[in-house]
Structures are given as structure tokens and as C-alpha cells.
Specification:
Order of helices and strands: EHEHHEHEHHEHHEHEHEH
Number of strands: 8
Largest sheet: 8 strands, parallel, barrel
Helix content: 25-40%
Oligomer: single chain
Structural class: alpha/beta
Mean pLDDT: 97
Strand content: 15-25%
Low-confidence stretches: none
Bound molecules: 2-phosphoglycolic acid
Radius of gyration: 17 Å
Length: 249
Amino acid sequence: MKIMAGNWKLNFTGTEATEFLTQYKKLVKDSPNKVVICAPFTTLSTLARYKKETGIITGAQNLHPALKGTFTGEVNAKMLVDSKVEVVIVGHSERRAIFGETDEFVNQKVKAAQESGLIAILCVGETSAEREAGETFSILQTQLEGSLKGVTNAKNLWVAYEPIWAISTGDPNKPSPIPTDVEIMEAHSFIRKFLDKQFGKNGIPILYGGSANPNNMNTIFKLKNVDGALIGGASLVAEKFAAMANWHE
Ligand code: PGA
């Protein structure tokens, strides 16, 4: 059993999601995996409506840590729970890079998500420049330490290792490189050790993210400490996401 978490990013209206889900449910009868889709806020209700038919768990891509206040445009954990959301991505590299999210802010989000009963998918990962400079593990250490400061709840936490250089650009003519098996295993084992040290015995799943798709999933899912995938581009194509949802050993 693996976790297949789709990240739709800035894609799909309710109507488009309905088309996707109608196609998906014809292709996936009874997934042996835990399947989640993290959708835009406006598409959450459509996704939740299809949970019974598709088995797909409703996820969001972001939240604000405050429970109320003068934060125009924001949505909090309580609102997500009320919208039948069960899982939320926090600290995605796009939010860190484009919207300036710091580890400290991501830390508040992890706590706010968990306090409301949501599972937080914490994303960590290095840029290509950081990898080339030999800083991969120190970056992971800093992000994990900062984002998980004071977090004690291992139950509502998943971690996604997403090397930023492997995340797809959305341009089919510019495919991103995929890390080698060794690179994935080294990063996942580093994260596993960090989590064991902070949480003691824990079953925190570690997902791989960055151009994961039906062609490379067999290789990736065989690697030690890879408990699933965070899937961007491939989660937008029903056939591809269905193939991943149907994955089994
Ligand atoms: P990708 O995105 O699968 O398109 O590379 C993964 C992500 O950014 O979560």
C-alpha cells in the first residue's frame, strides 16, 4: 500500500474536476492504495462529493494558521475541515519560493492543520544550486527542524521529499531530470533518521515528489523509505493518475 497524493496546483474548475473524476472512476475500481487529491479551494466541494464513488480523499494545497482575523483572501483549517478536507499540503516549494513562506510560517501551518485534525503533508527539498553546492542534507535539516519545531504529533504528519529541480515545469518540451535511485534513497533515509530522532517510534510516511509518473513509479516505489508519491503533472491526466492509483507490488 502506497500513498498516491495528487497535487492539482492551479488547475481544474469544478466542471473540469467532474470530467476527470468521471473518467477516473471507470478506470479505478478498488484501489489498493490510499489516494488523495489536493485541489484548489473552489474545487474541494466537487472532490468531496465524489469521495463515495471514487474513494479519493479530499486534500487542500494550503491554509492560513490563524483561526480568524484580518487576513484577506486566506482560508483556515477549520474552514477546510468544514469543507470535508482531510489532508493539506504545507510548505510546498512553490509557496516557499513564490509567496515567500518561511520555515517559521510553515511550522505554524503544520500545527494549525494538526490541531484541527487534518493531516499535514510537509514538503521539503533542495534547489539544483543547493545540490550542486553539496548542501542537500543541510537544507533538509534546516527545513525539517524549522517546520517541525515543537511538533509532537506523528499521527497527522506526512513528509514529502521534493527536489525542486525534479518538479515538472508544465512544459512537455522541457522535462525535468529525475533523481537517481541512490539520490532518492539517501534523502529519504536522512528524513527517516530525522523523524525517528524527533518522534521516536513513528509511522510517518515519506512521499517522493518531482515528475513522478506511471513510467517511473515501479522503480521509485521499490526504494527503501518511499511510502508514496506527491504527484503534480501526472495527477491532471485521468489515465495516468488512475494507473498510479492501481499500482500494486
Ligand atoms: P510534478 O509536481 O509531479 O509535476 O513534478 C510535484 C509537486 O510539485 O508536488
